[in-house]
Amino acid sequence: MDGMRISANPLRGQQFPAVLLLVAAGLGLLLANLPSHDALAAVLDLHIAVPGTVLDLSIEHWVSDGLLAIFFLVVAIELRHELTHGELDSPSKAVQPAIAAAGGVLVPIAVYLLIAGDSATATGWPIPTATDIAFALGVLAMFGRGLPSNVRVFLLALAILDDIIGIIFIAVLFAHDVQWLYLVLAVLAVAVFWLLSRLLHAKGHPAVAVAMVVVGIVAWGLVASSGIHATIAGVMLGLVMAPVPAARTRHVLEPTVNGVILPVFAFVAAFVVIPALAPSELSPAFWGIVVALPVGKIIGISVFGWLAMRIRPRGAAPALPFADILSAGALGGIGFTVSLLLANLAFAGDGTIRDQAILGVLVGSFLALLLSGVIVSLRARHYRHLGVATPSAPVEEG
User: Fold this and answer.
1) Whole-angstrom Cα distance, residue 156 to residue 93?
2) Considering 72, 128, 311, 393, which has the largest number of Cβ atoms within 10 A of its Cβ?
3) Which fold is adopted by the domain 10-174+229-383?
């Protein structure tokens, strides 16, 4: 990275959105455990139907299925850019973070199943596999002043691969009673969206942009009706959009995603009552997530990442010191956004276990945040003492 550029809009940065997410989740957890709980729960349970369709969702699900699809649209745009022109645009660049990402998925799954592998809670194994890119980069920006830029590049690449795995889990594991007609129509709508994005790229006419919005909403509704989780619509649309319109869309949506969509989702997802139970009475799902996120992630990413550095192909980036890989591993334990979504999906049929799984995500991510803050701070201080002043996190101009 060539230098620090100050953003005029803090919502385009990394530190402020991470703080906002944490505050929103804390507020949701607080209000869920005050006398205001029943009134707010009634609002979140209020159903809003779309006339003439099968869509009839609670406000809570409009947030997790609707608003979050916009977040996944932006994520998919970023994924495509990194896979075609960014940190993962060649096998030599991708192999090291891919191996580390594999460790960051497999080891947390193993840890979770060791603790919560019985029939009632085993379905929660995907929950601790996620890494929250925005949160992890936010912590890196706050505590990593002085770290070489290749640490951020490595973390970004493995977190992107982690996101791809999370998206596959959502699409494959949590599909239910798939309605193939709706799914085929959704694919056709995505194809129309693709054609319109090429037309917008070539012509730049505002009417085409309006048509894309309409077709995108239709595609979302069809995916939501098909039995596939609605957020996958955002992924599909983001992956097929032409590069120039995609970049503009990401730029326009980024402040809204960081400042509204993710905080609202964090608030709603964290709106759970803390059970009045002794630690020994908590569900194994809670403990599995609490251990797998901070411990499983740091072990998996660090060990597999170290192995990846030993088998670097020609043209790969220089090997990172193990302490730098350890920093990335600690940051990878901050699951948060996608882990909260996975917790809701994995235990959708059991509210008690679901709420404890969500608490496990919050506690595990907070422990990972503390651990990564300490490790990253120590590592950054080491580099500052060595006189290495390479900035760790450039910020886009607003």
Assistant:
1) 12
2) 128
3) Na+/H+ antiporter like fold (1.20.1530)
